Amino acid sequence: METGINNILNKLTDSEGVLGVLIADEHGLCLGARGIAKASSAGFIASIAAHAKELTELKGGAVSKDDTPTISVEYGNNTILIRSEGNHTLAVWKS
Questions:
Q1: What is the pLDDT of residue 83?
Q2: How many angstroms separate the CA atoms of 71 and 16, rounded?
Q3: What are the φ/ψ torsions at residue 5 (nearest 5 degrees)?
Q4: Which residues contact 90 (CB under 8 A, 6 or more apart)?
Q5: Residue 25 in contact with residue 19, Cβ under 8 Å?
Q6: What are the angstrom distances between the C-alpha of 81 and each of 2, 59, 60, 66?
Q7: First to last CA, the chain
Q8: What pLDDT is recorded for position 63?
Q9: pLDDT in tens, the chain (95 residues)
Q10: Looking at residue 55, what is its pLDDT?
Q11: pLDDT score at 25
């Protein structure tokens, strides 16, 4: 699994405009970080994703995979995109 995560991190980091990438597990443990992404932010990133998912569940009824929210945090000229898939949360810092 570690090789797969490293491959994903490396591929995303090499993408145009990407400044950093982080993957966290459902407990907020950092599974890997590249670029400007700080491993210490993994818990916050996972928490943001979990709370956003809870907000979408308030609509009443089951939430499909297509309803998984993508969170965009804008600061200065940069953006952090956060999304959970299964037991993992991905954060991508973009310029």
A1: 96
A2: 20
A3: -65, -45
A4: 21, 22, 23, 82, 83, 84
A5: no
A6: 22, 23, 26, 16
A7: 29
A8: 55
A9: 568 888 889 999 999 999 999 999 999 999 999 999 999 999 999 999 999 988 887 655 555 556 789 999 999 999 999 999 889 999 999 99
A10: 83
A11: 94
Sequence-ordered strand ranges (E) for 2-95: 18-25, 30-35, 70-75, 78-85, 88-94
Token couple for 61: 């009824």
Residue-level pLDDT at 68:
84
What is the distance between the alpha carbons of residues 14 and 20, in angstroms, rounded to a whole number?
10
Rounded Cα distance, 12 and 36, in Å: 13
Residues 80, 93 contacting (CB under 8 angstroms)? yes
Residue 81 and residue 16 in contact, taking contact as beta carbons nearer than 8 Å:
no
Phi, psi dihedrals of residue 10, rounded to the nearest 5°: -65, -40
